[in-house]
Amino acid sequence: MSDTNIKKTETKNDRAWEELFTKYSILEKINEIGYFEIESNSINEFRESRLMAKFDHYETLPKIFKQHKLSILPISRKKYIIGRFDTYLNVDYDPFLEPTPVDFPSSIESIDYCNLQK
Asked: Which of 97, 99, 81 is nearest to 40 (CA)?
């Protein structure tokens, strides 16, 4: 994905990550050894780590990650690794394939969503 896909509006995560990258010289360390490990307590200094380190889609990555082609992954319950590794897979769908309908197995029970009561 190119830098032209980077959103122009700055988010709270963008600002917090900019401050973290500056405080801990994250880019310099990544350029030096190839990755940077950061503890959730360090992230929490600026914003809650669970909000700062979970990016299900490329589009939700902070600007600084997109600009430097970085990703973040958990390596323990309280530690993350930041580096230049690809964590997102582009999916290409074949427009000529037709979906194949399947019958729902009768052996599986499910909630009757039409019959829910308060």
From this structure: 81
Instruction: State which amino acid sits at residue 86.
Output: D
Sole residue written with tokens 């973290």: 20
Whether 12 and 18 have beta carbons less than 8 Å apart is answered as no
Per-residue pLDDT of 96-106, as tens digits, reads: 999 898 887 88
SS3 79: strand
Task: Specify whether the CB–CB gap between 13 and 22 falls below 8 A.
Answer: no
Longest dimension (CA), the chain: 60
Sign of the C-alpha dihedral computed for residues 9, 12, 17 and 19 taken in this order: positive
82 residue type, one letter: I
C-alpha to C-alpha distance for 75 and 72, rounded to whole angstroms: 9
Distances (CA, A) of 114 to 20, 110, 111: 49, 11, 9
pTM above 0.85, yes or no: no
